[in-house]
Specification:
Layout lengths: L1 H61 L3 H10 L4 H30 L2 H10 L8 H10 L4 H24 L3 H26 L12 H32 L2 H27 L1 H10 L1 H37 L8 H9 L1 H16 L3 H26 L1 H16 L10 H15 L1
Helix pairs in contact: 1-3, 1-4, 1-6, 1-8, 1-9, 2-5, 2-10, 3-4, 4-7, 5-7, 6-7, 8-14, 8-15, 9-11, 9-12, 9-13, 10-11, 11-12, 11-13, 11-16, 12-15, 13-15, 14-15
Length: 424
């Protein structure tokens, strides 16, 4: 009965998180479609480059990811106020360091106009605190409050971005709009949390900064490496090819990411439930992990077939005639999404088993493979070569490397087990 109640609450929470993600996908897709059409592949590629620089530093600037915060609030009897205070102090220190390092490297590496764009856009690192407050609602499975905070900010700012793109007000204005959006998102999230925060925390544990930092270090370092090897292809395309081809690849990447978000949200939303089930029954926990991976296969196959048969129509409808050459990259990136799903589930398993350091090792190995393959495949096959390099490196990092160590071999066995019915 208790487990059934947990599952019902989890399903409702998952549905709300999916609604939240659909809202974000719809707004972002419209915004990026208008930007791509208004700016053209070359300028859109430049904007994608600026975002790539920002995204590489994002995991380190955040320090504590949402799943780490959720684990502390579900797996431990930690005081929420103390946990958030420690998270905010870590976030401030790390954000300042990341921003200064990003701006310094950009000053020497990029042209002056690109440097100014990066310096403005990366101000977001210093201002985005919403995940710290959202983590409480994730832990207690009240994600409808996160949906409210995002709707209040994303909808009006999405309209502002569209207005800026249509009126041709420039990338600098657009960058500062993203910064303003981060400010309003943090404020809105805090206000909603303040009205819904826990009241009685007398018998809970204070969270030390060192304790939170120690638990977070392997996660944010591996997240940084993931961001680097997911974005490194954009930098290498910019180096070997041109801004125009980078714009085509960025357009394909945005669509591929949009197709992932709903299922990724569902996977992430189940983490708190998985932690509770693990406490009750190890066998049932492993069964759920296998079933979760099996659920990923049908939607993945639908996305791959859709992009293969209708990719050109999708690109023309959303971005316009200039982006039709991105079709092959879109199909290839869609094929690689299955390893993204398996990677998320593997990460949750590693966190539940307190084996985060092994994630760091396999992600680093995946990054090295990706750089080597990009250096060889991009000059040979263009942006399609970058997509192929991404598929191979993700498959190694998310699945194959798990077979190499006795500690991670159990999740590799579960990953293989999830495929067996399809093999038969």
């Amino acid at each position: 009965m208790k487990q059934s109640r947990f599952l019902t609450r989890t399903n409702i929470n998952s549905a709300v998180m999916i609604a939240e993600k659909v809202l974000g996908i719809a707004i972002n897709l419209v915004v990026f479609a208008v930007l791509a059409r208004s700016l053209g592949p070359q300028i859109f590629g430049l904007f994608g480059l600026v975002q790539a620089v920002f995204n590489i530093g994002l995991p380190v600037a955040m320090v504590v990811c949402e799943q780490t915060m959720v684990k502390f609030q579900v797996g431990h009897n930690n005081q929420v106020k103390s946990l958030q205070k420690s998270a905010i102090m870590l976030k401030v220190a790390s954000s300042i360091a990341v921003y200064l390092l990003t701006v310094s490297l950009s000053y020497f590496y990029f042209e002056k106009d690109v440097f100014y764009l990066i310096a403005a856009f990366c101000m977001i690192h210093l201002l985005n605190f919403e995940l710290i407050f959202h983590s409480y609602f994730r832990a207690v499975e009240k994600s409808h409050l996160v949906l409210v905070s995002k709707a209040c900010v994303l909808i009006p700012f999405g309209l502002i971005k569209i207005f800026i793109a249509v009126k041709g007000l420039g990338l600098q204005t657009l960058a500062w709009t993203y910064v303003a959006e981060a400010i309003f998102m943090s404020i809105t999230s805090y206000v909603i949390y303040n009205y819904n925060k826990p009241v009685n925390e007398k018998n809970t544990t204070q969270t030390k900064i060192s304790e939170l930092a120690s638990a977070s270090a392997p996660i944010f370092l591996s997240a940084f490496l993931i961001a680097l090897y997911v974005r490194i292809d954009q930098f290498m395309i910019e180096h070997y090819l041109s801004h125009e081809e980078l714009g085509l690849y960025t357009a394909a990447g945005k669509l591929s990411q949009a197709s992932q978000h709903i299922l990724l949200t569902l996977l992430i939303s189940r983490f708190a439930y998985l932690l509770r089930v693990k406490k009750q029954s190890e066998a049932h926990y492993e069964k759920i992990v296998v079933e979760t991976m099996r659920w990923c296969l049908p939607p993945w196959l639908i996305v791959v077939l859709t992009t293969y048969f209708f990719g050109e129509s999708i690109l023309q409808t959303i971005y316009g005639q200039e982006y039709l050459l991105a079709k092959e990259s879109l199909v290839l990136l869609s094929i690689g999404t299955i390893f993204v799903y398996y990677g998320v589930i593997c990460t949750q398993w590693l966190m539940a088993e307190n084996l985060q350091r092994y994630r760091l090792l396999r992600v680093f190995a995946g990054l090295v493979i990706n750089i080597i393959l990009n250096a060889f495949l991009i000059p040979w096959l263009g942006i399609s070569g970058a997509a192929i390099a991404t598929i191979i490196s993700q498959s190694c990092s998310a699945v194959l490397f798990n077979s190499l160590h006795s500690k991670t071999r159990p999740i590799f066995n579960l990953q293989i087990k999830s495929l067996l019915p399809f093999w038969r």
